[in-house]
Amino acid sequence: MRKTLVHYVVVILVMGLVWKLLAVALSTRVLPSPEQALAGFGLAVRTGVFSHHFWASTLRVLAAMAFAWLVAFPMGILLGSRPRIDAWIAPFIFITYPIPKIVLLPVVLILFGLGDLSKVILLALIVGYQILVATRDGVVRIHYKYLDSVRSLGANAWQVYREVLLPAALPHGFTALRLSTGTSVAVLFLAESFATTEGLGYFIMDAWGRMAYVQMFTGIFGMSLLGILLYEACNALERLCCRWKFVTSQAGRNAVAL
Fold first, then answer.
1. What is the pLDDT of residues 199-237, one digit of tens each?
2. Domains in the chain, start-ordered, CATH in brackets?
3. Could you tell me the pTM of the whole model?
4. What is the DSSP letter of 102?
5. Phi-psi category of 221—alpha, beta or left, where left has phi over 0 and alpha has psi -120 to 50?
6. Rounded to an integer, what distance in angstroms lies between the CA atom of residue 177 and that of residue 33?
7. 3-state secondary structure of 94
8. Which of 72, 136, 205, 246 is in Cβ range 3.0-4.6 Å of 128 for a Cys bridge?
9. Is the distance from CB of 144 to CB of 168 less than 8 angstroms?
10. Region at 154 (left for phi over 0; alpha for psi -120 to 50; beta for the rest)
């Protein structure tokens, strides 16, 4: 944990230095100095202006990720372990997967209204597809000998799921969930730019429209912070639920070091 924090601090310092050089070279109001942006961020946090929008965005993306996981992860295991079902459902998934889900934003807004539900559904579609495809592929790649070994010991369907399918699927599901954090935050920004009065996307676009560039960067900081927190939360969940994976990885690294 401490090593990760050091890495983040070093990266932030380097980015701040580059930002400072650009601000001096360009000398424009559109790009305030890092000190001005940080001062504006601190003021927004202290006055509570920022926290309202930050928590609105956080709740939307958390609800979407939870809903996507609860639906897509079990479905991925089902498709990966049931070839007959997969033969009918997989073509539909692979045809619709490459379609950019953000183009469905107008349709989702019309069908589900302008409230939080439409934003959660759109985000859940984006995250859910990635979890579904990754989980299905992970289960499909399980070698048949592992299934045969467990079944030969008298394991029933639930034990096969618990001892083989679930451990094989979890790392793939968490990898997809972790990688989708950046995409979900980016789409959240676009979704909150339309017909809403709360959320970081609205906060940024409203400040941009008023040419309040320091406040605009406060919203950008908030989006960045949200993405980092979601990514690290997914890392922590994976370490908690897939401990065997990290024990094996650490043993492999130690062997290479020797």
1. 999 999 999 988 888 899 999 999 999 999 999 999 999
2. 47-247 (1.10.3720.10)
3. 0.85
4. G
5. alpha
6. 34
7. helix
8. 72
9. no
10. left
